[in-house]
Amino acid sequence: MNNSGFSARIKSLLCALGALSTSLFLAGCNQTQDEPAQASDNQWRYLLDSELSQWDAWMGVPHSTVNGLPEGTYQADNLNVNGDPSDAMGLNADVKSVFSVTVQNQQPVLHVSGEIYGGLTSKADFENYHLSLQVKWGDKKWSPRLKAKRDSGLLFHCQGEHGAFWKVWKACQELQIQESDFGDYIPLAGPSGTIRSRYQNEQQFYDPTSEVKNPVEGYSHAHVEPDYQHGQWNTVELYALADTAIFVVNDKVVMVVTDSIDAQGQPLTSGQLQLQSEGAEVFFRDVKVRPIKTFPNHIVQEARL
User: Fold this and answer.
1) For residues 2 and 10, what is the distance between their CA atoms, to the nearest angstrom?
2) Between 20 and 30 A from 6 (CA), which of 20, 54, 162, 209?
3) Is 270 helix (H, G, I), strand (E, B) or coil?
4) What is the dihedral of CA 290, 291, 292, 298, to 10 degrees?
């Protein structure tokens, strides 16, 4: 091949590479924040938008003190009762806008008034993922929790019908979000799991140094309580892989749940998400999820897996 032919081949190859680079750059520019992660396991899928398009709201039974409800709405004084969920207000019956979104600094922020017990439920199921969100408390509290700690929660591996627990939430595992109790673990309506634990005053505490794993049937306390003062944003992360879940609050591993099972004793590894309205005003932002295949090394070390 003479020099002129070789130069022409090189020029043609460079042009093709340039066109490919331009095409890839334009494809990247066309991707928006709200699109599901597809190209890389490191890409986040953002779950909040102004329309709450990725969620449904299930509203439970309103307390007897709630005003402004449609005529004939069933109300009660005791809301901590299981039973027929047909008493509940039901799916997408959020007539008082308990769940609403505002935009602050070009970012959607979920406002949960807390006035009526409810669960904002993801339309999608999730399995093998890392979920991250930021949460802070508002000032308002409602009956029947006027004198109790402000309370909410991140429910995961939610399955079955709405209203299985207290006519509000699905059967699920709960990462507790409560004043001074971030990252406690509560199984709701049948599921269970095991944790490394110790007991104090007949209460179960997660203890990463324990060699003994015990099943959890009720409430188990986190290893530490690293939540910030009222009004400050906290970062809550959930790593869920196979039948193990790791709770991280403000960069500290606070709970590890293993051997997760459903009410029938089968491995519980996937399901919907729910964000709770439970008598306290609370805000969520930067709610996002991405797939994982393994736990990060620093999480494995801190969790002593």
Assistant:
1) 13
2) 20
3) strand
4) 10
Q: How many C-beta atoms surround the C-beta of residue 1 within 10 A?
A: 8
H-only helix segments in the chain: 3-30, 297-303
| Tokens matching residue 155 | 């429910």
For residue 28, pLDDT over 70 is answered with no
Label residue 273 exposed, middle or buried (CB < 10 Å: 0-12, 13-18, 19+). Answer: buried
- For tokens 């970012």, what's the residue? 107
Closest CA to 174 of 81, 275, 250: 275
Q: What is the pTM of this model?
A: 0.86
Upstream peptide bond of 144 is cis (omega within 30 degrees of 0) = yes
Cβ neighbours of residue 244 closer than 8 Å, sequence gap 6 or more? 256, 257, 258, 259, 260, 305
Tell me the β-bridge partners of 258: 194
Parallel/antiparallel/unpaired status of strands 220-221 and 203-206: parallel
Torsion angle in degrees (nearest 10) through CA of 216, 219, 225, 230: 150
DSSP category for residue 150: P
Spatial separation of the C-alpha atoms in residues 205 and 88, rounded to whole Å? 34
Spatial separation of the C-alpha atoms in residues 280 and 138, rounded to whole Å: 7
Q: What is the pLDDT of residue 177?
A: 98
Distance (Å, rounded) from C-alpha 92 to C-alpha 124? Answer: 16
Run of H or E including 114: none
